[in-house]
């Protein structure tokens, strides 16, 4: 299986099964149309030669067909598909390597699109105690098997409402990781209202990554993100984020959400870049269509076009020496992720769990508060994941919609929570999300190819 498309006057060919990417001349690009779905490569070559003889000189066409043949021979074009089985993915074992630690089920903002019930996650507002957080860290360390590198994301609501506990848990984690011979990578997500110089310094010293929530332009941000009292937050948050980004010594991302209200989200990325931010993400909102801001199927063509605009903007910035890193256009093309990531991109319910302030365990942050997916508690002495098999087998080999998709090894089947919300079944991918993911993959490859070509 191959996927062919044009980007910035380049003919790009992705070999789906090997992951190889080729830049093709016009003759080879046109000829490959005859190879797609063909049972016999020699027969396909002859059909291509006959059909294209009037458009390309014979030597050029022969050279193109010879290149195609050589790439097929080396296994980087029209490569065979390896069957995916449950047994193959079972090899990773039931270990946990990452945890989303919900230190605050409360928030000082009230965002219209919030999936977390304004931070309460369909329950009572609460803050995680130091004792529960420490037990959660032990839970991760004790169930991480041979994994040396672990991850903890401090999440909410707004985690800075419980900053004193965050500081204590980082210190506890650093001390406890030594006994297990492990290293914990800490991340925090914040809306920025409570960010100050003290927290800036702490984040620089202890957080491997920081996610800063801001949607973009003032009118876009304030239409969806307001304080709990309904006031604008743009100026306060922007001031804090710009100060933090200027002093940041490690990784960070400004994470926005685009909705039906700002389908021109390239302008939000442009706005953030012009403010000096270099690491930016704009995520599509996932919401029930009863909401006026929810994305709809009829919006897809406009969104795909906007990703093209955004890709062109990223290329333009890079060529001018002011490059930005757009999260969804960052893709590993040299070797790619491990087999588990390729066939089950999300580790929810297997390698990744979320812990509520009360110590309840869920497959990921998007499932927190859903009693049907409560896995147990960190206090359970004989904890066993009751959903391990369910999520472990939710890979592309068991998702009919993924079988013939050219992007399947780059998304791994998509988000389980989105699938459940859209279709009531984690094995039925969210179709709108699939369309957007495929475009992002095309743009990611295209941006890199365009920059390599100069």
Account of the 3D structure:
38% of the residues lie in helices and 15% in strands. It is built from 16 helices and 15 strands. The two termini are 29 Å apart. Helix 5 (130-142) packs parallel to helix 6, helix 10 (266-274) packs parallel to helix 11 (300-319) and helix 11 (300-319) packs parallel to helix 16 (431-452). The chain has helices spanning 26-31, 41-52, 58-74, 86-89, 130-142, 163-180, 197-206, 218-224, 234-247, 266-274, 300-319, 339-343, 388-392, 408-411, 416-423, 431-452, and strands at residues 2-7, 10-15, 21-24, 98-102, 104-105, 126-127, 149-155, 183-190, 209-213, 251-258, 279-284, 325-326, 352-355, 360-362, 376-377. The protein is an alpha/beta fold. The radius of gyration is 24 Å and the shape is globular.
Q: What spatial form do the alpha-carbon principal axes imply?
A: globular
Count of helix runs: 16
Strand order of the largest sheet: 12-11-10-9-8-7-4-13-14-15
Label the structural class: alpha/beta
| CA radius of gyration | 24 Å
What ranges have pLDDT less than 50 throughout 5 or more consecutive residues?
Answer: none
Report the sheet with the most strands, covering strand number, pairing sense and barrel closure: 10 strands, mixed
Average of pLDDT:
91
The portion of residues forming beta strands comes to 15-25%
Number of strands: 15
Could you tell me how far the N terminus lies from the C terminus, measured between alpha carbons in angstroms?
A: 29 Å
- Helix fraction bin: 25-40%
């Amino acid at each position: 299986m191959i996927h062919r498309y044009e980007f910035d006057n380049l003919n790009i060919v992705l070999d789906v099964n090997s992951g190889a990417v080729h830049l093709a001349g016009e003759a080879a690009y046109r000829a490959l149309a005859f190879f797609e779905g063909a049972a016999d490569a020699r027969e396909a070559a002859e059909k291509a030669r006959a059909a294209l003889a009037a458009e390309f000189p014979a030597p050029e066409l022969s050279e193109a067909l010879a290149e195609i043949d050589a790439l097929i021979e080396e296994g980087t074009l029209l490569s065979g598909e390896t069957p995916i089985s449950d047994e193959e993915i079972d090899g990773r074992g039931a270990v946990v390597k990452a945890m989303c630690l919900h230190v605050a089920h409360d928030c000082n903002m009230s965002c219209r699109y919030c999936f977390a019930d304004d931070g309460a996650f369909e329950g009572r507002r609460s803050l995680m105690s130091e004792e529960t957080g420490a037990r959660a860290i032990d839970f991760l360390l004790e169930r991480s098997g041979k994994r040396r590198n672990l991850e903890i994301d401090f999440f909410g609501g707004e985690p800075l409402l419980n900053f004193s506990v965050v500081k204590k848990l980082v210190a506890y984690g650093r001390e406890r990781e030594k006994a297990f011979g492990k290293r914990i990578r800490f991340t925090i997500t914040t809306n920025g209202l409570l960010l100050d110089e003290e927290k800036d310094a702490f984040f620089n010293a202890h957080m491997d990554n920081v996610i800063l929530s801001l949607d973009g332009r003032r009118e876009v941000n304030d239409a969806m993100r307001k304080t709990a009292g309904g006031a604008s937050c743009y100026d306060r948050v922007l001031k804090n984020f710009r100060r933090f980004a200027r002093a940041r010594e490690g990784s960070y991302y400004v994470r926005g959400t685009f909705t039906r209200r700002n389908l021109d989200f390239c302008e939000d990325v442009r706005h953030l870049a012009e403010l000096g931010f270099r690491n930016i993400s704009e995520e599509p909102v996932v919401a029930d269509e009863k909401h006026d801001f929810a994305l709809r199927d009829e919006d897809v063509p406009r969104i795909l076009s906007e990703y093209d605009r955004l890709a062109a903007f990223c290329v333009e910035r890079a060529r001018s020496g002011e490059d930005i890193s757009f999260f969804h256009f960052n893709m590993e093309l040299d070797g790619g992720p491990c087999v588990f990531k390729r066939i089950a991109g999300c580790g929810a319910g297997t390698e990744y769990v979320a812990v509520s302030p009360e110590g309840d365990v869920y497959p990921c942050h998007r499932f927190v508060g859903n009693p049907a997916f409560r896995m147990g508690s960190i206090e359970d002495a004989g904890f066993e994941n009751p959903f391990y098999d369910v999520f472990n087998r939710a890979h592309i080999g068991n998702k009919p919609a993924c079988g013939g998709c050219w992007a399947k090894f780059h998304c791994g089947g998509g988000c389980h929570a989105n699938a459940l919300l859209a279709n009531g079944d984690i094995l039925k991918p969210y179709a709108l999300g699939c369309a957007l993911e495929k475009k992002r993959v095309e743009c990611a490859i295209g941006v890199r190819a365009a920059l390599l070509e100069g």
